[in-house]
Amino acid sequence: MKKNISVIEGDGIGPEVMKETIKILNSIAKKYGHNFNYQKTMAGSLAIEKFGNPMPEETIDSCLKSDAVLFGCIGDAKYDKNPRGMRPEDGLLKLRKRMNLYCNIRPIVVHSKVNKSPIKEELLDGVDFIIYRELTGGIYFGEKGRSQNGEVAYDHCIYSKEEIERIGEMAFKAALSRRKKVTLVDKANVLETSRLWREVIQKIALDYPGVRLDFLYIDNAAMQIIMNPKKFDIILTDNLFGDILSDESSVIASSLGLLPSASIGNNKSMFEPIHGSYPQAKGKNIANPLGCILSGSMMLEYFGMHKEKNLLEEAVKKSIEARICTQDLIDTEFSSTTEEVGDYIEKYIRNQ
Ligand code: IPM
Ligand code: MN
Fold first, then answer.
1. How many other β-carbons are positioned within 10 Å of the β-carbon of residue 260?
2. For 60-101, what is each residue's pLDDT tens digit?
3. Active-site residue 187, yes or no?
4. What domains, with CATH codes, occur in the chain?
5. Does the pLDDT value for residue 289 go beyond 90?
6. Do residues 275 and 256 lie in contact, with contact meaning Cβ atoms separated by under 8 Å?
7. Residue to mutate, 87, 243, 259, ligand 1, most ligand atoms under 8 Å from C-beta
8. In angstroms, what is the span from residue 243 Cα to ligand 1's centroid?
9. Residue 31 CA neighbour count, 13 Å, CB half
10. Ligand 1 atom 7: the closest Cα is on which residue?
11. Which of 134, 146, 260, 345 is exposed most, by the fewest CB atoms within 10 A?
């Protein structure tokens, strides 16, 4: 298969983790006779410096034309004071919106061989849930503003029935091939948007009699995820709650550096690790590349390349079992570099 992939390395550790990911995807392509054609394009700080815009139109164009986008990470404190629309993060939000990537899928899996989690081991064994986070609506994209004197500010949270339906359908479909449970996380005791979410999702549930639907308020969910993470299968939630729950869930998985994600729209898709740009680690060859590599694996699955995805994930599993891990996962004295982790996985794939 031939696939055109837009690549945005981004800021901080982005280029390092992306380098390992592409090395591994190339070895998959070689083994299975695929042709992955990468087009590197710019976003984030580099784009601000070069084009005065964190998400230039050329980048959006390239992404819209490609079969998928691989995204590293963006963010740089240097631009924190930039006006709205001009921070690196604004570039990412703009791309999500322009590509209409409304469904963000974030799997949380615990690998039994690493345990850097502060949570008791017996609570973690066998945890396997997926967050379905709405990605192009809600408080992130509603009208924002300030009063004239700057002393009053607002962010509107808006959702339409259609926006809720399209991600709701995807969450229920995913549950069918898993443990058949959807938990809607909201704040329906306070927020009107949450009440609409409940109405719409309850209607969808009627079409999926085999799937159990339950509801949790976000404050309670934040507690349950830590106290009893095994009870979750699919967590369905809005943009802001999904953002918060995913970082919280990374504590269960030991490291934010491990977690991948897929953002899906109608015929468009982007794959990116959950972690940020981690500027303190930039250029040090210590960042965990697995979040980015596993995002590549989600891309393979999206392309329908199931054997390929399975081999990549097996290779990642072997690297963890062999304790070839970066220092977020094991003690520094035994840790491997970003590149060594990538090399191990690449070699495993090549030798299979
Ligand atoms: C994420 C990130 C982004 C978000 C930031 C960088 C805008 O935290 O993908 O979780 O809030 O969506
Ligand atoms: Mn986040």
1. 23
2. 999 999 999 999 999 999 999 999 899 999 999 999 999 999
3. yes
4. 1-101+275-352 (3.40.718.10), 117-253 (3.40.718.10)
5. yes
6. yes
7. 243
8. 7
9. 19
10. 89
11. 146
User: 331: which residues sit within 8 A by CB, 6+ positions away?
Assistant: none
Q: Which atom of ligand 1 is nearest to the CA of 247?
A: 10
Q: Taking all residues of the chain, what is their mean pLDDT, rounded to a whole number? A: 96
Report the separation in Å between the CA atom of 269 and the middle of ligand 1, taken as the mean of its atom positions: 16
Chain segment 104-116, per-residue pLDDT in tens: 999 999 887 787 8
Q: Name the catalytic one among 67, 90, 238, 243.
A: 243
pLDDT tens column, 41-59: 999 999 999 999 999 999 9
Q: Across the chain, how many H-helices and E-strands are there?
A: 12, 12
Report the share of the chain in percent with pLDDT over 90: 95
Instruction: Identify whether 159 is a catalytic site residue.
Output: no
Atom 8 (ligand 1): residue with closest C-alpha?
243
Helix ranges, 52-87 (H): 57-65
- Of 247, 284, 307, 347, which one is the catalytic site residue? 247
**What's the rounded mean pLDDT across residues 282-297?**
98
Nearest-atom index, ligand 1, CA of 135: 12
Confidence (pTM): 0.96
